[in-house]
Design goal:
The protein has 210 residues and is an alpha/beta fold. The protein has a single domain, classed as Rossmann fold (3-Layer(aba) Sandwich), CATH 3.40.50. It has six helices and nine strands; from the N terminus they run ααβαβαββαβββαββ. The chain has a seven-stranded mixed β-sheet. A hairpin with a 7-residue loop joins β8 and β9.
Amino acid sequence: MSADDDWLADTRNSYDTVAVSYAEWIRDSLAGAPDVLAALAHFAGLVRAAGGGPVLDVGCGPGHVTAHLHALGVDASGVDLSPGMVDVARRDHPHLTFTVGSMTALDVADSSVTGLLAFWSLVHVPDGALPTVFAEFRRVLRPGGPLLVGFHVGTGSRLKTEGYGGHPMKVYVHRRRPDQVADRLRGAGFTVTDERLPGVDEESGILFAR
């Protein structure tokens, strides 16, 4: 593994360590986030308007957003870098499909999903890897398919060494301005269609693209 891929190993190992604690911490988070619920409902409507079909939740973690989309009538499945997270998602949502995989190389056929969301799963992706990730999103999405991304708003990065129950972690948390994320998406061939700020709080943002 090259040095450029260290962030993948660090992210995988960190979330394997905190998977159970993280699932407990985030379990009821959607109930207290009306902006996020509205964004997910809008996304589900866009999927239906596009004719329906499979939707991929990339960086799904414990699967709570995947399950919410399923409850909205969306044919959602999840993929996550962390096998520990996938185990928890399968435990908590046995009726849904979750697989281990990296957003840098999705094991999904070209133009095979109607919609894709990356809900705060881009926060550990370094700037240099964003073009690869967004190119993968575009590759697997059907033409015109909706994309929903959530991210931390701001500038700079910080190293997170502990979290979710006090377990050790080693991940960088990257904050980006909305115009930076939008420019990266446009550079990958997307059209940004909607911007919603704040998202969960004043430091969070949500972008829709296709």
